[in-house]
């Protein structure tokens, strides 16, 4: 049973990462018919949504694309920033989807932003308590670790609707503004779906690990 659990825990994130890399690589080589670079796509979407104050900048690294709500910046990885591809278009639109969420005070994005400091602290501290609790068989410490870990799991779960909604907004934007043609829509959806899978995998593994620790804790209580 534990062998199956650890295999799933190990392979699920690896599969998700391989899937997104493979899908991105495939459609980053498909030139978009609009001929617009990722930077141009982002700028168009932002301006059309009253977000001219949001900057579009180049970011070093592979798939390092993100939106920073504090600096109001859409950062695109070098390839997506400069090249005109279906994958770059989808990724740029997705990050703009987060900018639109921010402007509209999308509830789950607001909640996730508030959870960031809590998740950062709890995720780092939880395993200290968990390891001490498990090694020394100290139930209260294990419980503290589980509670802290649960805060991180909540963050992972809240992230899912944020990412799904950003992808939905991305598709709506690139279709509404004629950035992609009908035949390109399935390709863009595949890129966004593959990216979303990484978040699903992260949330699933986090929930599985939390449940395992809860079962260990309840087993300790039953032994007393």
Contiguous uncertain segments of 5+ residues: none
Helix content: over 70%
Distance between the termini: 24 Å
What strand line-up does the widest sheet have? 1-3-2
Radius of gyration: 20 Å
Major sheet summary line: 3 strands, mixed
Strand content: 5-15%
Write down the overall geometry. elongated
How many independent structural domains? Answer: 1
What does this protein look like?
With about 220 residues, the protein is mostly helical. The chain has one domain (about 1-224). The chain is about 75% helix and about 5% strand. It is built from 7 helices and 3 strands. It has helices at about 1-30, 40-50, 80, 85-105, 105-135, 140-175, 185-224, and strands at about 55-60, 65-70, 75. The protein has a 3-stranded mixed β-sheet with strand order 1-3-2. A hairpin with a 4-residue loop joins β2 and β3. α4 (about 85-105) packs across α6 (about 140-175). The longest helix has about 40 residues, at about 185-224. The protein is elongated. The two termini are about 25 Å apart. The relative contact order is 0.15. The mean pLDDT is about 95. Keywords: Hydrolase, Membrane, Protease, Transmembrane, Transmembrane helix. One of its GO terms (molecular function) is peptidase activity. This is Zn-dependent protease.
